[in-house]
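Forum: Protein Structure Q&A
Topic: Joint prediction for protein chains with partners

I've read a bunch of threads here and the consensus seems to be that you should model interacting components together rather than docking separate models afterwards. I'd like to see that in practice. Below is the full input, 1107 residues plus whatever partners are listed. Could one of the regulars post the assembled result?
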Amino acid sequence: MTTATTERIAQLPQVSEPRNPGMALDLDWVRGVQANTSAIERRAATLPGRRSVKKDYQAAWLLRAISCIDLTTLSGDDTVQRVRRLCAKARQPVSPEILAALGMEGLTVGAVCVYHDMVAAAVEALEGSGIPVAAVSTGFPAGLSPFHLRVAEIGESVKAGAQEIDIVISRRHVLGGDWQALYEEMRAFREACGPAHVKAILATGELGTLRNVARASLVCMMAGADFIKTSTGKESVNATLPVSLVMIRAIRDYHERTGIRIGYKPAGGISKAKDALVYLGLIKDELGDRWLRPDLFRFGASSLLGDIERQLEHHVTGAYSAGYRHAMG
Amino acid sequence: MTVKELFDSMDYGPAPESAAEALAWLVDMGDRFGHFIDGAFTAPGAGFESKNPATGEVLATITQATQTDVDAAVKAARKAQPKWEKLGGPGRARYLYAIARLLQKHARLFAVLETLDNGKPIRESRDIDVPLAQRHFYYHAGMAQLMEEVLPGRAALGVCGQIIPWNFPLLMLAWKVAPALAMGNTVVLKPAEYTSLTALLFADICTQAGLPRGVVNIVTGDGAVGEMIVAAEVDKIAFTGSTSVGRRIREATAGSGKALTLELGGKSPYIVFDDADLDSAIEGLVDAIWFNQGQVCCAGSRLLVQESVAETFHARLIARMDKLRIGNPLDKCIDVGAVVDPVQLATIRGMVEANTAGQVHQADIALPAGGCYYPPTLITGLAPSDRLMQEEIFGPVLVSCTFRTPAEAVELANNSRYGLAATVWTENVNLALDIAPKLAAGVVWVNATNLFDAAAGFGGVRESGFGREGGWEGLAAYTRPVGKAKALKPVESFSGSGAPADPIDRTAKLYVGGKQARPDGGYSRPVWGKGGALLGHVGLANRKDVRNAVEAAQGAAAWGRATGHLRAQILYYIAENLSARAGEFAHRLDAITGARHGAREVEASIQRLFTYAAWADKYDGRVHSVPIRGVALAMNEPVGVIGALCADEAPLLGLVSVMAPALAMGNRVVLVASEPFPLAATDFYQVLDTSDVPGGVVNILTGSHAELAAPLAGHLNLDAVWSFSSTPLSKAVEAASAGNLKRSWVNNALARDWFANDSAEWLAQASEVKNIWVPYGE
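Posted by a regular:
Agreed with the consensus. Here's the joint model:
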């Protein structure tokens, strides 16, 4: 297994954290996991009322959220020009005037996330920025292409310069309770990633129960995932607070037992600045401040940035903002 | 700090809710408050300062009520009551609806004022207390609307004296005022002296709602004012507060005929089984013991965790505690606010410091300088014999002990003088639904905690008090049967010196544990017929016979677990066997009473047994419609062991009327037979003997009601005491019942028509409603 990385990119966990080596599949642990849906929903429902971040603190938190965004385009009609435009936005996510007013010049997003065919274009567009390119892979979003092709796809993307690979798991392994198969699949994906760090997309909206989400989270971490991620953004239900609570509690559990910190990426459906603040509060309270960094936390989002820009302008000027005042990506 | 620095530190920072509006209201009101009597505020008088416990700042000056004030308030309430009741349910519903709406319109003002006055986090007053208070008025507007349709034969009690605590000032007001008003009562309410402000704002709301004057009266002051209300000419006292004060109120109101409900202290168990979602159970504890700084009567303050997961659970809990945020209660980002008063803070501190057992863990968080703050605290490794496992702390202090098996969990949970609430965490539905009914508590939460709603009754058993607030079961506390009872004259036994009526001596004994027993004292007395003939002798039971009978009854607990069907069969069988000897019993009754309605009494007794045999498997609980995805199961449970002084005037029917509903609902009874005419009861145990009644379920004593009343009512292992004696013992019985705050039901020297059918009242007296909340979802 390769743990070395050549580039110094702050967003990648292997820079400052020991990379997750994985561990043998511990089925007792996996099967012993519980997730009480109604209790988890109650906790999630009261979160926004329990935490409030105001004024300069709020601006700082929103800037932190930007630094953790995987700016994403995953459409069938993506073109090289479209990806370049997105990468330009990734380099300059907020207008220079606003960033200057906040003393935050040079802020960028966490990464740019694209399909394999767009990796090369993104790498080129981001050259020198320090922003890594993430590629969705392994037959994204369904993950039902031939296994050897899925593994090969990872290799291709890494070769093309992707430093992060977002893989999708086979949901059927979870639904069938075949934890061994899920473990082996994840192991193989991790292996194929080599130095690139790997995010395991659980597609939680298709796993049926929160208990399954908790178990799949653990198995993927045991098999060496660097990050666990909720959704492809293509399921009908994507990131939710209850699912997030379950996944980050699994991360906490894994950290308590192994000492290894795994990253978390909620994806899909987070489009408001206020939601981003709730997520950051959730991470801060349940996992701790260490996780509030792009090497251990990302938002998979495309429209979130626009709302944050409006809020930041409001913070700076005191007037409510309009979308067209901010450059599109 | 610059934004860049905050970007690195990612601290929460202050997020204060503005107090400006609430402070402006106080200024508008002159910062000085009188009482709200007969629809208007009185001139402020001598009183005391109400302070913000988070800062020590004086918020306003409150008037200490005098006897004249209390009298004026009661008089206003008395005068307003008939018209208010006559307005009818639908008429009253409109006012309650208006109050609910106004509470909504002024929601934030109430929330901020509550937090200023009490020190609870603004999140709690804003998201929990105030919305629940609104909900109680909406819900009871509906109850008023429906009263005539669903509660025929019930009327308002009259004037209700209501004394509420400082931990949920507005919410407790709503719990008390809404049902009282809905049922046609008027009220005199006293808020706690630490926290009077939202009650005074509520008075303002009543005016805005156009509520007729005198319907709601609010007097302020300390416990002395409470005592004046208890002593006043009111028809009911509703009290929420400490067990010691509740006990004094029980003693003070004994025999007065004032209805009483008490919602007192608790040391509620929080049980975590090894298959629970531990992280969720820990989050539940945050809402159980660190909600409102732990100043919650039903706080899950006694953690019982299964040995196999205890170490992990405690470690995670301690880590969670360090993440709690304590500070300015008006801050929207605070979990734990200020304790209500320096006095309470000193109490909490004193109790924790006096403890030398276990390991004390306090949250590793900085306390704000000044103000009444106490850190979230966990004490592990305690045993039931440690004082902190038994005594209510009423602060953010959790105590913990481990258990090995579900049976041991129940044993530990019930090893308490209290019985308010309980929490059970397990993913096993079999286990949850097995444990919940076994817990001595009025409310049980499964995989959740501190869930409240107007549609589900709240209240406790044992020394946590009696009566329920909320739900259908709460209405009983604010209504009475219509009609006026006549005075009950003492029934004298006959005297004589004649020869035995039957030359063969028949020895009537006591009936204890399914066996005939000679009285412990070894004394008997003769029983004479009307003509002076000697009908026989009966034993004179003493306090030791009471002890033996209660012990036998407690030993027959299996009766409470028997199916309703089985209990019905046995009641039918008793009726069948009585019927077989109907002629003999009728004859005997005529002989002992000297009257000629023995046959009618026997027939009515058989009917009564049939009636409660019928009810035994039909007095169903309810599923309350609470606003969660889940069910709140209101289960009717037996009260336990009921002791009763049976009616003197109806020697057989009076005894059967007590026994049948009690047995139907799964209780065991200790019955003291008619004092002047005990022989019907002693004949009756032969019927019981032949009817498959398990030993100990029914115990019958004979003797002096006056002598047995105190040991019976004072017995600390008796769960309820009833008195229908014609000897005026209501006061003695209720005063003695204060020992363990058992439920009491006495005749207050008023006659009862033993031939009337009034099952609803009897069944309610013979059962406890336990609300089991089961949220669900996968």
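Chain A has a mean pLDDT of 95.
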